[in-house]
Structure formats: structure tokens, C-alpha cells
Amino acid sequence: MTFAAAKSDGVRSRITVVTVVINVVLYQLGWFACVLGAAHGLPWIGPLAAAAIIAWHLARAARARPESALVACAVLPGALFDTLLVQSGWVHFSAGALIAGTAPCWMMALWAIFATTLNVSLRSLRTHPVLAMILGALGGPLAYFAGARLGALAFVAAGPALSAIAIGWAVLTPVLLLAARRLDGYALP
Length: 189
Fold this sequence. Notes:
By secondary structure, this protein is mostly helical. The protein has six helices and two strands, in the order αααβααβα. The protein has a two-stranded antiparallel ribbon.
């Protein structure tokens, strides 16, 4: 069985239900590897898991090059966004910053594996930017809050931090989905 999610934006793809389920499961496993690794003082575990997930994702793509570019397009603004959260003093990440005052490597890995969902499990959101904004504004803060509860980060000022995260994710989610439409390695040639 294949999804017809790409039909709405005029791009044909052969993404099976199994591919979507594996994509969601791998993303969740990667999220837990990043967050729990950081929480337990092992911030390198997340990037290792992310590398394996990205390798699997690229191997499944019809064209790996655009998917690789999409991963880079997600990591750059994501790292900048998380660095701004650190610099604001609202968020403190427990481990993994290669340079003091910047986003930790495991957060960059999270942005990378988030990119692997854009043309697969989140594909149908590509033509619904308002819904993508709403889901980003809700899902972003929930993910950071869960990460804080698991010990990977701390909110120095929870109200401003969660508000900034909601706004940032409300902007970044539809922007990254727009990039995904242009960098779609899962579209059929």
C-alpha cells in the first residue's frame, strides 16, 4: 500500500505505509537516544544514532543528494535557533556543546533527524503551512519540555523560553517544509 499524500502538491512518490511507520519509529528512537544520552552525560550517543538514521533515510531515497541538502538546511537554522535560546539565558543544555554558549551536538542531531521526516511522515503538511505552523507551535515546546523532564536541558526562565520555542517552531516548521518540497529525494523522477 502506498500513500497518495504527495498528490496534493503534484509530486508523485512511492512512499509506503511501512516506510512512514519506520520513519516515525526511527525518529522517536533517535529523539530518545539524543535526549537520554545528553541527560546521562553521554551526548555523543545521539549523533551516532542520528548518523545511522540519516544513512538509512538516504539509502531509501530515490535521490540522496536533495535529502542530504535538506538535512543541512534543517541543521543550520536549528543550531542557530538553539544557540539563540542559550544566549538568551532562557535555556541551559546539560551536555554536548562543542563551543561554550552554542547549541549542543545532540540538538543539531535532532534537527537532522527531524529533516528525515519532512518528505516522508510529515509529507502531507508540505501544502498546509498554517497547520504546519500550529503543529510546530505546539510540538516544539512539548518536545523541549519533555527533554527538560528527562534531564537533557533546563529552563532558566520557562515562560519566555517556551514562548520563544513556540514562535521559533511555528516559523521554522513551515519554512523547512517549503524547503522539503524543493529538496525532495523521495519524489519519483
